[in-house]
Design a protein that fits this description.
Elements: H1 8-18, E1 25-30, E2 34-39, H2 46-51, E3 58-62, E4 65-69, H3 74-82, H4 101-113, H5 117-136, H6 144-158, H7 160-172, H8 176-186, H9 189-199, E5 205-206, E6 209-210, H10 221-240, H11 246-287, H12 289-305, H13 313-323, H14 328-349, H15 353-367, H16 372-382, H17 384-401, H18 430-452, H19 478-481, E7 486-490, E8 495-498, H20 506-509, E9 515-521, E10 525-527, E11 532-537, E12 543-548, E13 553-557, E14 570-572, E15 579-580, E16 585-589, H21 591-596, E17 603-607, E18 615-618, E19 623-624, E20 629-634
Antiparallel strand pairs: 1-2, 2-4, 3-4, 5-6, 7-20, 8-9, 8-19, 9-17, 10-16, 11-12, 11-15, 12-13, 13-17, 14-16, 18-20
Pfam families: PTS_EIIA_1, PTS_EIIB, PTS_EIIC
GO molecular function, one term: kinase activity
Domain PTS EIIC type-1: 107-464
Length: 635
């Protein structure tokens, strides 16, 4: 659960320390809600450490990125983080060499579009507002006021290649001004006029090669590929050209090479590719609209979870460029609204004031088309709301599909505020389909949550101020339990309690890792000592980190130096992130196999965040018995 943060410098410093410092960072970027880090190596507990920081909603590791979801304050945290590290990591950008091609493409789309997505969103809202005004005041479209506001709203899309040039130059480490100069040539009115001449049948050639009629206003892939190739050409020229003439001749050669190359080859091919993908989607949407709606309505927010949603932007913009409309964003809007409906359902069902407060905040953010706070802060945290949201998104989008829904103005952040983008006199039923689908999307999850509840908190963080109650199970009165000041941790297995001084490892025997007790197990099963979540599993399976629903963090280290065994004696019954109930078997281990290697099976059981509590009281035992009280944590 994210707390309100004002000391952004401290949060940035804590994140930097948790991920291994500046020397472990390859690249830093951000999007609307996430600080995105590319790391040289992943630290085993970095995800848990960063997630537990006040102001962090959650951490997602995907596409070779360590994504810290912060929400609306990500800009301040990014600026503070940038001041702590050297943002220029040199010409050898390792991040571009890691991961699959798909991952690298998605990471590039995110880095390119995220910095100016709010500009496109603002322009889209202005276009929607003009649509709405014209609906009520038919003569407004003939006024000069409308014309001025209209060209303002279209300007970011008309000159989109220039925006892409600026962000892509930073991503690919090219000279920003050269990239802008080349992309500005693509949207030059002169070239647009030449393309119109070619389209009318006139032949215009460059060095004897006939030019195509492709225009580049509002285009995505041509300027993106231009800057990508420009980065290699520029590096080659800088490396091989005399430094005296370099400042003049590098931009000169880059422009006279890259602009014609784009007009002759890159532009037509990339535009053909983007239009081909768009046509493929349109074929599905026109011939099986219910299927297209079901897929987008149910799975769009899943793409958002993994940060791969930027990949559809070229396709959507290609639709607007070719046809002046797009159905993908109509279905996308319904998927967004469904997650808002799920949050609303939690607000109405929850008894915990803390849960209500977080849900209201996340829901307000969702109104503007930003669903990460709703997804991570509420819906995924309780699981059921996210599932109900996906179901409602599918049902709403399928219903809307029978009305031929389209957006007629691009929405940078589709959501409730952009529904008016579906109004057009040529498609009068479009807006009704979107409205009906949106109503279903917001009402259905509310109803489902009132009937089935919203589940248990699976992501409560250490040090949280509130105990989160179990919800949605008839007859339970967990709210009363949430007010107690003590929590019992049971023995995870049966065995002999060993004095810490006798543990043959100085790190454990000193108690440096936290409040602990050592047990020599007499059976080979490790049981869950409380209800909670698995937050860490060592790659060699010899250690497991657990977090109770109220935030107690427990590390169970099976044996001493058993990391040497490379996991062979251990059989896991759970995986990282799994939710468990007290008494469930978490791990089985082969005691004889451990001892045959000359290693001890003495197992430290450690409360690693004991400092967050008033006291940890360890029972005076000589033997531990599974399900017996081992320690009491006083809050």
């Amino acid at each position: 659960m994210a707390k309100k943060v004002r000391d952004y410098s401290k949060l940035a410093g804590d994140i930097l320390e948790a991920v291994g410092g500046e020397e472990n960072i390859i690249k830093v970027s951000r999007c609307a809600t996430r600080l995105r880090l590319v790391l040289k190596r992943s630290k085993p507990q970095a995800k848990e450490q960063v997630t537990s920081l006040p102001g962090v909603i959650t951490v997602v590791e995907n596409n070779g990125q360590f994504q810290v979801v912060i929400g609306q304050h990500v800009g301040e945290v990014y600026e503070a983080f940038a001041s702590l590290v050297n943002m220029d990591m040199g010409d050898d950008d390792q991040s571009e060499k890691q991961g699959t091609i798909v991952n690298r493409v998605i990471a590039t789309m995110s880095a390119v579009f995220a910095p100016f997505i709010y500009i496109l969103a603002a322009a889209g809202i202005l276009q929607g507002s003009l649509i709405l005004i014209n609906l009520f005041f038919s003569g407004f479209q003939e006024t000069g006021t409308y014309e001025v506001l209209s060209f303002i709203s279209w300007a970011p899309f008309t000159f989109l290649p220039i925006f892409i040039a600026m962000t892509a130059a930073k991503h690919f480490k090219a000279n920003t001004y050269i990239a802008v100069a080349c992309s500005a040539a693509l949207v030059s009115p002169t070239w647009t006029a030449m393309a119109e001449q070619i389209a009318s049948g006139e032949t215009i050639s460059f060095l004897g090669i006939a030019l195509s009629e492709t225009v580049y206003t509002s285009s995505v892939l041509p300027p993106l590929f231009l800057v990508w190739l420009l980065s290699y050409l520029e590096k080659f020229l800088n490396k091989n050209m005399n430094e005296v003439v370099r400042p003049l001749f590098v931009p000169l050669i880059c422009m006279i090479v890259m602009v014609p190359l784009t007009i002759l080859l890159i532009g037509p091919l990339s535009t053909l590719g983007a239009n081909g993908i768009a046509n493929g989607y349109n074929f599905l949407a026109e011939n099986a609209p219910a299927l297209a709606g079901a897929i987008i309505g149910s799975l769009w927010q899943v793409l958002v979870i993994f940060g791969v949603h930027w990949g559809v932007t070229p396709m959507v913009l290609a639709n607007f460029d070719q046809y002046g409309r797009d159905s993908f964003q109509a279905y996308q809007t319904i998927a967004v609204i469904a997650q808002i409906g799920a949050v609303l359902g939690v607000v109405l069902k929850a008894k915990s004031q803390e849960t209500k407060k977080v849900s209201v905040s996340a829901g307000i953010t969702g109104i503007f088309g930003i669903t990460e706070p709703a997804i991570y802060g509420v819906n995924l945290r309780f699981k059921k709301p996210f599932i109900f949201g996906c179901i409602a998104g599918a049902v709403g989008a399928i219903t809307a599909s029978f009305f031929n829904p389209y957006y007629f103005a691009y929405a940078g952040l589709p959501g409730p505020l952009t529904i008016v983008n579906g109004i057009d006199s040529a498609y009068p039923m479009s807006i009704w389909g979107i409205v009906i689908g949106s109503l279903i999307a917001i009402v259905l999850p509310v109803v489902l949550i009132q009937i089935f509840g919203f589940g248990e908190d699976t992501a409560q963080q250490a040090g949280s101020e509130a105990l989160v109650e179990e919800q949605g199970q008839a007859g339970e009165t967990a709210a009363a339990d949430a007010k107690v000041n003590e929590e019992v941790v049971d023995a995870p297995f049966t065995g002999n309690v060993i004095p810490l001084a006798e543990v043959p490892d100085e790190v454990f025997s000193s108690g440096a890792m936290g409040k602990e007790v050592a047990i020599q197990p007499t059976e080979n099963k490790l049981y869950a000592p409380f209800d909670g979540t698995v937050v860490m599993i060592a790659p060699t399976k010899h250690a497991i980190g657990l977090r109770s629903k109220t935030g107690i963090e427990l590390l169970v280290h099976i044996g001493i130096d058993t990391v040497k065994l490379d996991g062979s004696p251990f059989n896991l019954h759970v995986e990282d992130g799994a939710v468990f109930k007290k008494g469930e078997i978490l791990v089985e281990f082969d005691e004889e196999a451990i001892q045959s290697q000359g290693l001890e099976t003495i197992t430290p059981v450690i409360v690693t965040n004991a400092g967050a509590y008033e006291e940890v009281i360890i029972e005076d035992l000589k033997q531990s018995i599974f399900n017996q009280k081992l320690m009491t944590v006083v809050k």
